[in-house]
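Reopening this one. Same input as before:
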Amino acid sequence: MKPMKLRLVAVAYLNARYRVIVGFSLFLALFWLLFLLFRLPFDAMWYGSLILLAGGLGYGGYDLYRFYSRHRAFIRLRDEITISLDRLAPPRTLLEEDQQALIRILFDDRAKQISKANAAYADRMDYDTLWAHQIKTPIAAMRLVLQGMEPTQARMELEQALFQIEQYVEMTLHYLRLQNDASDLLFRRVDLFSMVRTAVKKYAMTFIRKRITLHLTEAPCMVLTDEKWFTFVLEQLLSNSLKYTPSGGSISIYPAGGEEKSLVIEDTGIGIRPEDLPRVFEKGFTGYNGRMDKKSTGLGLYLCRQTLKRLSHRIFLSSKPGKGTRVKIDLSEPNLPIE
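Same output, byte for byte:
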C-alpha cells in the first residue's frame, strides 16, 4: 500500500492534533486579552504574537514531519509484521508502549494458531495421501477377481464402477499434489497425440459401452509440458465429455485450425447453460448439469485449470445447451527449463 498523499496526511495530522491547536489558539487569544487589558503598546503585542506564531508553526512543521515519517514506517511494517515485530519503532510514550505490548501478545497468539493449523493441515494431507495410496491395493485385488469371472453384463457394470473409483482416487491424489507447492513437475518435449492416445485408450471401454464415436485427427506436434500432469487433464476432459454425451453421440479431438500448438476436444453432449459458463472452473461449482447428475464433484474442471496454470498452458471453454461443448487448450511454449 502506498503512503497517504500529503493532503490526506495533513488532514489526518490536524485531526490528531486538534486539541493542541485549539489550546494554542486559546493561549494566543489570552495573550492578546492581557495586552489589551493592560493597554500595552500595539507593537509589543504584534511582535510577541509573531514570535509565538513562528514558534508554533516551526514546531508544527517538525511535528508534522515526524507524524509523516512514522506513517511511512507503519506502511513499511505492514508487509513485515506477519513475519517479525523487530521493525517496530521504539515507543515514545507510555501509551505507545502499552499498544506495542498488546500487538506482541496478539502476534504471538496468531503465530501459535498458525502453527497449530499448519500442523493439522499437514497431518490431514499425510492421512489423505496415505489413504489414497492404500486404497489402490483392494482396488487391484477386486480387479483381479473380476478378471477371473465370466464375461457377463454384471461383470462389465462392476468393472465400470471400479474404473470410476480408480478415477476418483487419482483425482484425490492429484488434488493433494496441487496443494503442495513443491510439485513433481518435469518439463520435456512430448508428442501431443501420443498423450491423447494414452488418455483415449484408458476410456476405450466407456466409448464402447456408451456407443460414442471418436473422431481423432492427428498432426505432428511436440509440446513442452509435464506428461503425467497433462495426461491427467486430458483424462478429466474426456471423462466430462463421456459423462455428458448421450449414447450414440460423438467426441472429436483435433488440433485447432491455424494454431501451431493447440488441442480441441469437442463433443455432442447436453452442453452447458450460458449462466453457468463463467463459473465452470470454480472449485466445487457443479452447475445445472452437475445438480441433475447428482454425482458431480465440481472438481474436474477446477483441477484442469489449476494444473494447466501450473504448466503455463491455457484453457478455453465454449458450449451451447443441447449442441455440445468445445474445450481448447493453448499449448504455446512458455519460457520454462527443458530437461
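So the earlier flakiness isn't reproducible anymore. For the record, The two ends are 40 Å apart (CA to CA).
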